[in-house]
Write a structure and sequence with these properties.
5 strands; 347 residues; alpha/beta; five-stranded parallel beta sheet; single chain
Length: 347
């Protein structure tokens, strides 16, 4: 990628981030308020400016004008208000946005992907994804109870984003996230929003399905990260722990005011029509339609996203696997899901 230029208004924060990159020679820090000339053009640029005053914006524009060459990706790190950050990033010509709390690995991975498809994603879509990711991270890591009112906020973000930008750009944007659980929840929720639209569901039912999909994996916060992010096959003991997440998620939400259908989706999204699923080994008629819809989105989402142990699968191939699960998934609903796959493939 070449040398990374990190522009910041806090040198200590920038130095910590640069150290996290692992190679001190691969990055150069520039104080936003230092007028020293630049010796060479960088291979990539990151701005990490917390106090974006009018003076800071002017200085950033001047620096970018001096050092940014053709094809050099520029990533804008977001502090605070995402809507305001979106407008500022557009003014500065940023290729993408990322939370300032992201890891160095996530930052470098995002910059690397900016050289190809990510550069075509509208900044507004990336801002929506960043906002949704920050919301979900706060909800899952705060330790506070998840309430219906909180879930409504996240659901509105996803439904609005998919309606405004379409499923293709949204999926590309959320694939920037480093945390696999956050990425997966947002991916499955966006697939559910698109699926419900393809089914012609009314707005209230579309919202209901998207909310269930957004919360389906909340129980994974109780699964150790070394199991969640393990790059190889889980042992039998690790599989037992992993399979506790539906029941743990259900226990988190039951009694908090959520409707029974949503609670069923959280507890039963790994159930299969032939009784081979878990945790309750439900069969056929015992599995409600809402659960069946979430399960299809969950399985497809897991196949098309990057995992520590494999690359993401192409959409048509993933859909072929869904079709091959006719004895375990609702075949009629799988056929109804095909337009979602087609829209994403031809976007």
């Amino acid at each position: 990628m070449g040398e990374l230029l990190l522009i910041s208004d806090d040198l200590r924060r920038a130095e910590r981030l640069a150290r996290d990159f692992g190679d001190p020679t691969a990055s150069r820090i520039h104080d936003l308020y230092d007028d020293e000339p630049f010796a060479a053009r960088p291979g990539a640029i990151v701005s990490d400016v917390e106090r974006l005053t009018s003076d800071a914006i002017i200085r950033l524009r001047r620096i970018l004008g001096q050092v940014r060459g053709e094809g050099v990706p520029y990533l804008f790190l977001v502090h605070g208000n995402t809507a305001r950050a979106e407008a500022q990033a557009q003014v500065l010509g940023a290729d993408g946005l990322l939370s300032a709390g992201a890891s160095a690995r996530q930052l470098l991975d995002t910059l690397g992907r900016m050289r190809t498809p990510l550069r075509s994603i509208p900044v507004a879509v990336q801002a929506h994804a960043c906002e949704a990711g920050q919301f979900l991270k706060q909800v899952l890591l705060s330790g506070k109870p998840i309430t219906p009112a909180v879930a409504e906020i996240g659901t509105d973000l996803v439904v609005r984003a998919v309606s405004d930008s379409g499923i293709h750009d949204w999926i590309q944007a959320i694939q920037q996230f480093d945390d696999a659980t956050h990425q997966h929840c947002l991916l499955v929720a966006s697939l559910a929003a698109a699926f419900s639209a393809a089914l012609g569901l009314r707005a209230a039912d579309r919202h209901r399905l998207t909310k269930a999909a957004l919360l389906h994996d909340v129980g994974k916060i109780h699964v150790p990260t070394e199991i969640l992010n393990k790059p190889g096959k889980l042992t039998d003991a690790e599989t037992v722990v992993m399979r506790t997440h539906p029941a743990r998620g259900y226990a988190m939400l039951v009694g908090a005011g959520f409707e029974d259908g949503l609670l069923a989706a959280v507890r039963s999204h790994h159930e299969m029509l032939d009784g081979s699923g878990y945790p309750d080994h439900l069969k056929a008629w015992e599995i409600p339609d809402l659960v069946r819809l979430v399960t299809i989105c969950d399985v497809y989402g897991a196949l098309i996203e990057r995992r520590p142990y494999r690359a993401p699968m192409a959409g048509e191939r993933a859909y072929g696997i869904l079709e091959g699960m006719a004895d375990r998934l609702d075949a009629d609903l799988v056929r109804a899901f095909q337009p979602v796959v087609a829209v994403r493939a031809h976007a």
